[in-house]
Amino acid sequence: MTNENNFIGFVVGGAYSKGTLVQLQNMVHEEVEVGYCLVAESEKGSYLMIVNDIIADSPNTAISVNMARKPTFTKHLLSDILLTSKLNCIPIACASRGKVDDALTIPDYLSKCKLLTEDAAEAFYGKIDWQKRFPIGTIKPSEYNVPLDVGVMVQNSFGIFGKSGTGKSVLGNLLAAYILLYSKNSQLNGGDIPTTQLIFDMHSEYGLKLKTPSQTVLAPGVAQCFPEEFKVYCVDHELVEEIEKEFKRGTFAKEFKIKKEKIEVEDIIALSELLKISGVGALNLQSLKDKLNEIGGNWFDAIINFNEYTNEFLKENGFDTQTITSLRALSRRLSIFKNLPQFSETDDTCQELLKELEKGKNIVVSFGKYGDLEALYMFIVNYISRRLRETYVGKSMSEGVKNRIIILVEEAHKFLNPNVRESSPLGLIARELRKRGIVLGIIDQTPSQIDENVFGMIWNFFVGATSIERDVDVATSSLKLTQLFKPLVSALRRQEFLVYGSALKYPAVVKVVDYNSIMEMLRKEYESKFKANINSEHVKRFLEED
Amino acid sequence: MCALKGNYFLIENSIGEVISSTYQIIEFELHRNSIIQSIERGTFIVVSNGGNILVGVVASTKLVIVGTGSTRPSRLKMGPEEIDRTLPELKDRIYNAYEAVIVGELLEGKFVHASNLHHAIVHDQVYKMDPEDVREFLRIPCDYLHLIYNEYGVEAVLSHVRNVKSILNENEFLEFLKGAVRMLHVRGEDELIRLLVSTVD
């Protein structure tokens, strides 16, 4: 156990590139975990360090002792002498003479090391203000909540990575709520332009409810916590009813429809990789669009139903045999879209959605049971993104950026991998529109599949556990001393993230704050600041309603 | 400042007398009329001459035969009392001399281990160390086992450790061993650590 001052040992060596070695004193190494934060106090200043390895060190003498004879007795005699415990620590920051900066050296020999306390942590990471700096999570072993500067985060793209079940959706909802509150505060105080969010909600965890991987309901999604601020467009019409039935908070939920005649060939070409559409197939579609319009009323209907036309009919309408064969193959691939209720002859909600977004409403596009239909998910994300991009590209730079849009997208690698990045609307947005106020919030399990040019535009990283080495490599690639951080990523538990980037003063391994209690606090804050005549009982009832 | 519990200046309490000494080893013989006839290996002794107080650990013994007769004792087939009665001069001719390793001394009122600054002087008196003084001597981490080991080997060390165990309570003994292991490690005597930890109960 540590003493009153949290003293745990001394610096006994190390290297900047490999980490600082701390020998534990009167403490069993089992009491420390990878990811713990320490402060080493040298004459120069205080160093913040993160433990990335734990070393039980014993020389040959200790090994040759017959330890099995009396293990407790032997351990007592040899511990701290021949059975030593060391920690390898990443030097993070150095506080010296009232100034805190990145650590570019390691603490001196025999610097005293202490477990991080809340006060010490605050000296390095700063304070939460609930205006722009919100709590992202606690750092071990303290209960100190690290502040995330949401005002800085929204300036550039950010990424949430980690394998399934690590808590990406919980974190995504939390960040969405922080962005909302930050934007509302900014509008109140005039500190920044309004920020709105467009959330592509594959598994309906933003528009409806957060669930565990085994589908147990955890909590209401961000749109349900702030129904006044969000509109949920449901790709699945049953979801509209579910939202209305489950929540009586006045959440605006509307079925999402695409008018077939508004679909462009590029919307299909964007799916080329997924549907294995060849270059020839894509060219055919482009050049034969008018002919297809003629035979089917609109080209989209004509191509997905192409195999229902006879060769005779098609030839009469000017299609040659080779083209017919090619289009029949294409039609088979697009048959996945046949009879889907989202494609309408008359209704189109996309323009309405974009207008709402422009007006400052936060939008969630929830997919309900269609979340697993990959082609539809990709189609709709591309469809909306393309039109959003067109709206913004058309705007003159001289108009200035009046509002910011954050596009939160799950399974981002499908849109941002090197094969499609050039043609994908999201890839183009990432490249072209940051200066016009559109940034991406990328949520993905496999960051290694994201194009490196897009990755280079990410300024803030939330990295959950991932066991694939190349994903760990990529997710930590923007860190100094990247090699030292990799063991931390492998050791992360559920709801734990390695967070780093411009919005956090220094990298930290955090256990994400409790979603429900933070949402309750944010809701209270929201109601007290932005809504009148609502008492705390109402807030409680509101959050317990479901 | 250490207040000694044993009276190491009262000659009646002494058990023997120094015959020779180096800075490392004291050779002493028990008094003819000593309260003890022999002394166990590993026992703490104190040598005092009114000036220095040296602490030693008995590590070895040898037979001494004086005079011009046989260099080997012959068989007598008598009990100790009969020998005393019928051959009273025998104990003056044939007896044991003991060797003790100097393991520490009292310097400026405090016990120190393995200082080896002083040697004993011939005719200095030898006393058994009072158990309370042994405790005081062992209050600091034990840093003298290497001296015994290097002069007399591991068996002498183990005899001494057994002696210490008979004086200290369980916790004190554990701390004694822990201190000994720490200091032996500092002195690079890892082989002795291995033997000690593998043998001592």
| Largest sheet data of chain B | 6 strands, antiparallel, barrel
Which two chains have the most extensive interface, and how many residues on each? A-B, 15 and 13 residues
> Major sheet of chain A: size, sense and barrel closure?
12 strands, mixed
- Roughly how many Å is the radius of gyration of chain B? 18 Å
Strand content of chain A: 15-25%
Count of discrete domains of chain A: 3
| Cα separation of the termini of chain B | 33 Å
Portion of residues in beta strands of chain B equals 25-35%
Outline of chain B: globular
**Strand order in the largest sheet of chain A:** 9-8-23-22-21-10-20-19-11-18-14-15
Question: Secondary-structure map with pairings?
Answer:
The complex is a heterodimer of chains A (546) and B (201).
Chain A: E1 7-15, E2 19-24, E3 37-41, E4 46-57, H1 60-64, H2 71-78, E5 84-96, E6 99-102, E7 112-115, H3 118-125, E8 133-139, E9 145-149, H4 150-153, E10 157-161, H5 168-189, E11 195-201, E12 209-211, E13 217-220, H6 222-225, E14 230-234, H7 237-246, E15 252-255, E16 258-259, H8 265-269, H9 272-275, H10 279-287, H11 289-296, H12 299-304, H13 311-316, H14 321-334, E17 343-344, H15 350-359, E18 362-366, H16 374-393, E19 404-410, H17 413-416, H18 425-432, E20 438-444, H19 452-455, E21 458-463, H20 469-475, H21 482-490, E22 496-501, E23 508-512, H22 515-530, H23 536-544
Parallel strand pairs in A: 10-20, 10-21, 11-18, 11-19, 14-15, 14-18, 16-17, 19-20
Antiparallel strand pairs in A: 1-2, 1-7, 2-5, 3-4, 3-7, 4-5, 5-6, 8-9, 8-23, 12-13, 21-22, 22-23
Helix pairs in contact in A: 5-22, 10-14, 16-18, 22-23
Chain B: E1 16-21, E2 25-30, E3 44-48, E4 53-65, H1 80-86, H2 90-93, E5 94-107, E6 110-113, E7 125-128, H3 131-137, H4 145-152, H5 154-167, H6 170-186, H7 190-199
Antiparallel strand pairs in B: 1-2, 1-7, 2-5, 3-4, 3-7, 4-5, 5-6
